[in-house]
């Protein structure tokens, strides 16, 4: 693991979001166990880095669902976005999570301004999202990374505009953004 990884701000935000996410999984999916992966573990590397899986959620039936977690800052809450890394490195053709994601679910959650809770969150069914995309029911926008250090490109969509069957659970204000004339 890289020196200082656990002190990096995005990592701190991820760690802060975990207990909040756990409460969502317990309330909505009746989770009996939630397993997250360590960057030091070989299996974790494959699940996280290759397939985009951040957690495994065990149901009361002892079946397991895999989940990608996106814990986002309050300042981005008005975007309502579900975002996938399209090309991790466009110049070399290295593909991002858009192509590799094998999670069953995605939890998208925006923190409150004080960072103590989630202002809004949604649990999305990934296979249904992929099928809805295939049949043109989900519109994706292309966006280049706004961080000058990163080269990745992203595809995003408004969570409020997803087909209802793709969003298993949600809480908070997910009103669709108005389109500028």
Shape designation: globular
- Unreliable residue runs: none
Category by helix and strand content: alpha+beta
Report how far the terminal alpha carbons are from each other. Answer: 48 Å
Main β-sheet, in a few words? 6 strands, mixed
How are helices and strands ordered from N to C? Answer: HEHEEEEHEEHEEE
What is the beta-strand fraction? 25-35%
Q: How many domains would you count in the coordinates?
A: 1
Task: Determine the number of helices (DSSP H or I, runs of at least 4 residues).
Answer: 4
Overall mean confidence score, pLDDT: 87
Question: Helical percent range?
Answer: 10-25%
Neighbour order of strands in the largest sheet: 1-2-3-6-7-10
Structure overview:
The radius of gyration is 16 Å and the shape is globular. It has 4 helices and 10 strands; from the N terminus they run αβαββββαββαβββ. With 181 residues, it is of the alpha+beta class. Strand 8 (141-144) and strand 9 form a beta hairpin. The strands form 2 sheets. It has a 6-stranded mixed β-sheet with strand order 1-2-3-6-7-10. A 4-stranded antiparallel β-sheet has the order 5-4-9-8. It has one domain (5-171).
């Amino acid at each position: 693991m890289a020196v200082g990884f656990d002190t990096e701000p995005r990592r701190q935000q991820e760690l802060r979001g975990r207990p909040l996410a756990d409460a969502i999984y317990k309330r909505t999916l009746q989770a009996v166990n939630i397993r997250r992966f360590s960057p030091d573990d070989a299996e974790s590397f494959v699940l996280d880095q290759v397939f985009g899986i951040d957690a495994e959620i065990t149901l009361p039936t002892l079946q397991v669902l895999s989940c990608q977690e996106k814990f986002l800052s309050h300042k981005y809450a008005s975007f309502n976005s579900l975002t996938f890394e399209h090309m991790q490195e466009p110049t070399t053709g290295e593909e991002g999570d858009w192509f590799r994601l094998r999670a069953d679910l995605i939890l998208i959650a925006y923190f409150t301004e004080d960072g103590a809770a989630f202002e809004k969150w949604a649990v999305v069914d990934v296979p249904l999202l992929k099928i809805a995309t295939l049949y043109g029911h989900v519109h994706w926008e292309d966006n280049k990374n706004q961080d000058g250090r990163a080269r990745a490109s992203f595809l995003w969509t408004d969570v409020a505009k997803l087909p209802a069957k793709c969003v298993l659970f949600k809480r908070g204000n997910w009103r669709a953004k108005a389109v500028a004339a």
